[in-house]
């Protein structure tokens, strides 16, 4: 058994070294990209069941590096979080998204809202409300145009400074969403302890919901819970018409997913003819 253990350790070593080099390269290049303000943002609509065009979008960071090529946020966000770059990254994405919301609002004469992902680390400094206030002021957006999505919320510990910041944001009119609700990352205890306006259900609860009775029951129970709590529910990752039909039938109001629209560059949306939003 010991021999086997050693053999396995040896076999893993080159992989580990490679992995380290990759992470180090990402950190270096990310630093360069942030200095150059070179990250992009893609937008995915948060669709409303009764509306045909969109007034609400999630901002998702995108990075195409000249040396590394396209790097997924699933890879570079954890690096940013671990290396202290997440604060700068978060500020840049938030400003970019709010500028876009302001532009779309002018074009449509509707109040366009953006959801911006915020990592636990961004609540560490204690100055998120001030940062948000500055970004709103500089972009000309009103607070109700911003929803802060708390990602990796398992790392969001409901300490007094965290609760104080979330309360300050809400008092100003910014809404708070719990991302990936139901995955280990975001549990009932987080919902119990943090002031939130919206919960986002992870795709794993929606996949094949049309053929999985247990998932339907679970989602139906979550809907009742959010109604009781007066919390908005957004269902993520809707990919098939079958999944959508079940969600419609259950009365889900807000959905995101490839079926409705993939995350794309802002320039791919256009103002609807009646200016009621974007298409
Ligand atoms: P998330 O916030 O849960 O975002 C949803 C992810 O699911 C996005 O991946 C989106 O492209 C993808 N998605 C949307 N619809 C569908 C669908 O129908 N099917 C499937 N399979 N996937 C779908 P993406 O853009 O790769 O982002 C991954 C994660 O990276 C995000 O997950 C979020 O946690 C994080 N992230 C992205 N941008 C930022 C950012 O600006 N700041 C922070 N802190 N985190 C970010
Ligand atoms: Ca999110
Ligand atoms: Ca999510
Ligand atoms: Ca996620």
Automatic annotation (TrEMBL):
It comes from the Bacteria. It comes from Deinococcus seoulensis. This is EAL domain-containing protein. Residues 23-277 form the EAL domain.
